[in-house]
């Protein structure tokens, strides 16, 4: 596909001019290593989870997502890859990255637990 600007461990980014297309692959990584075997459909699940939370959480708005590629909406020049992109590609506004990472696990501990109890 034309315009590949960044290939990450599990996502690829394409420059569309004023917008970006982020494609979630079926690749898996653990401990910063990309595994040889992919998980079929994983990219679609990742993109649909992102879409769900962007659509659901009012505090997450405004956000960068414009739309998820489906059978009707495909960025110009990518029509030939419609089936490969369907459900796994997100067209987004270009934005400045806010370098924050949040890891959520199954237990509330530490300062978060103390604040919750108060």
Describe this entry's structure for a reader.
The protein is of the alpha+beta class and 118 residues long. The chain contains three helices and seven strands. Strand 2 (11-15) and strand 3 (19-24) form a beta hairpin.
Short note summarizing the structure:
The chain is α+β, with helices and mostly antiparallel strands and 118 residues long.
Protein traits:
118 residues; alpha+beta; Phosphorylase Kinase, domain 1; 5-stranded antiparallel beta sheet; two-stranded antiparallel sheet; 23% helix; globular
Report the CATH topology name: Phosphorylase Kinase, domain 1
Described by the principal axes of the CA atoms, the overall outline is: globular
Number of strands: 7
The figure for the number of domains is 1
SS strand fraction: 15-25%
SSE topology string: EEEEEHEHEH
Distance between the termini: 53 Å
What structural category arises from helix and sheet content?
Answer: alpha+beta
Largest sheet: 5 strands, antiparallel
- Figure out the total of helices: 3
Low-confidence runs: none
DSSP helix fraction? 10-25%
Provide the residue-averaged pLDDT: 91
Give the strand line-up of the largest sheet.
1-2-3-7-6
CATH class: Alpha Beta
Quickly give the CATH architecture.
Answer: 2-Layer Sandwich
**Over all CA atoms, what is the radius of gyration?**
17 Å
CATH superfamily caption: Phosphorylase Kinase, domain 1
Can you lay out the helices and strands and say which pair or pack?
Blueprint: E1 4-7, E2 11-15, E3 19-24, E4 29-30, E5 33-34, H1 42-56, E6 65-68, H2 82-85, E7 89-93, H3 110-117
């Amino acid at each position: 596909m034309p315009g590949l600007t960044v290939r990450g461990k599990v996502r690829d980014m394409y420059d569309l001019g004023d917008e970006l297309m982020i494609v979630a692959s079926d690749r898996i990584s653990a401990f910063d290593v990309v595994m040889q075997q992919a998980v079929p459909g994983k990219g679609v699940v990742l993109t649909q989870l992102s879409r769900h939370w962007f659509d659901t959480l009012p505090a997450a708005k405004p956000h960068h997502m414009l739309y998820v590629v489906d059978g009707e909406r495909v960025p110009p020049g990518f029509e030939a890859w419609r089936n490969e992109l369907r459900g796994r590609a997100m067209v987004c506004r270009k934005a400045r990255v806010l370098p924050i990472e949040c890891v959520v696990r199954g237990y509330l501990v530490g300062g978060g637990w103390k604040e919750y109890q108060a």
